[in-house]
Amino acid sequence: MVKVSPSILSADFVNLERDIRALGPAGADYVHVDVMDGQFVPNISIGIPVVEAIHRISPLPLDVHLMIDRPLRYVERFCKAGADILTIHIEADTQENNLEALRRIRDLGVRAAISVKPATPAEAVLPYLELCSLVLVMTVEPGFGGQSFMADMMPKITEIRRYVTEKGLSCEIEVDGGVNEATGRTCVEAGADVLVAGSAYFKAPDPAAFVAALHALRK
């Protein structure tokens, strides 16, 4: 079954606890938490104290996506704040530092993950796959919600799926950016396991029905 990870970037921040608690009854699988530093991406969102607070009330595992420069400096603190999955970006630091960051995440009992921007080729994930429980493919430029889905990223998803299968790894492929029921189907057909939905989930007339529709894309 396809997993659904609603992005709280599109939630009502005045009523954030309400919106997060509602994810469980809606049938979602993860809570996607976008952390932006204003340097790696041109936007600022939330930080460690908010992740700690979300962890205390979340009915679901926290899928924390670090869109920050040199994440090695902060991965231990985000793990201790309550991340269940912690994603760093390939483009945010050197390969050596990224590998060390993934090792530290794993050593703390958290699922380590790597993400790639649209311009980054599929083969860039190869040095990291053995350390990863998840690979996140961006289908928009990271930094802002509500952008249009980039269908030309589908070959990248398929290629990463091939790498994972050939290596016999247990590694989910997640897609983030412009995901709705129609684009979600396209992602799943390309090889995705987890769909991040922000605006489409929080603006849905019936969020539970929306989640059920995504779950049904692959039985």
UniProtKB/TrEMBL annotation:
One of its GO terms (biological process) is pentose catabolic process. The active site is at residues 34, 176. Substrate binds at residues 7, 65, 143-146, 176-178, 198-199. This is Ribulose-phosphate 3-epimerase. Its cofactor is Co(2+); a divalent metal cation; Mn(2+); Fe(2+). One of its GO terms (molecular function) is D-ribulose-phosphate 3-epimerase activity. Its EC number is 5.1.3.1. Pfam families: Ribul_P_3_epim. The gene is rpe. The lineage of its organism: Bacteria, Bacillati, Bacillota, Clostridia, Eubacteriales.
